[in-house]
Model the fold of this input.
Amino acid sequence: MKELKKVNMFCSICEEIHEVSLIEEEKETIIKGEKIKYKELYYKCNKYTDNNIFMTGELWNINLVNSLDAYRRKKDLLTSKEIKEIREKYGLTQSEMAFLLNLGEITITRYETKQIQDASVDNMIRELNDNPLFALKLLEKNKAKFKRYENIEKNIKDIIDKNVISFLNEQELIAKYAEYNNESIENGNRILDIEKLKNIVRIYY
Done:
């Protein structure tokens, strides 16, 4: 149990406004037959010692998402936050991403809040994230569903262009430092780590 901060707010224990503590505590729950550990948030009234904890509607929702995401991580599924980040990467609303994947209009809304995606949908979202050409193909296939088709198409093509540049730059680095692909005294008996090299280049450019 850890106190995160103190805040002034309406306390539903003593029914008045005063300073309460926001507490984080590890809890266990069962989701789909699996025992899951997650971080739960609640408020503690500091005026009473017994039965002095309470939650707001916002904390109930946060705790629900935290528990579902703990299950997702255990099953190697994308978390609600990761799904949202992929959606925002393409500049899509929740309903637009659902249309793109040929799902029900509010399906992505549920995945970002209170529902766990199955493995097949999770794989499709991962493919969407990894392969903007796949996203462009899905957009064209479901074109009739989109009022912002041109804007979304531009967003995807911009991502494709960046990926091509990134790929070409990586190939250039590999070619430039090809001699370091084998262990030798000159390179400290190490093989070229292209990802590490790319990160170093980004620092200076």
Remarks:
- The chain has eight helices and four strands.
- The helical segments are 57-74, 80-89, 94-100, 107-111, 119-130, 132-141, 149-176, 194-204.
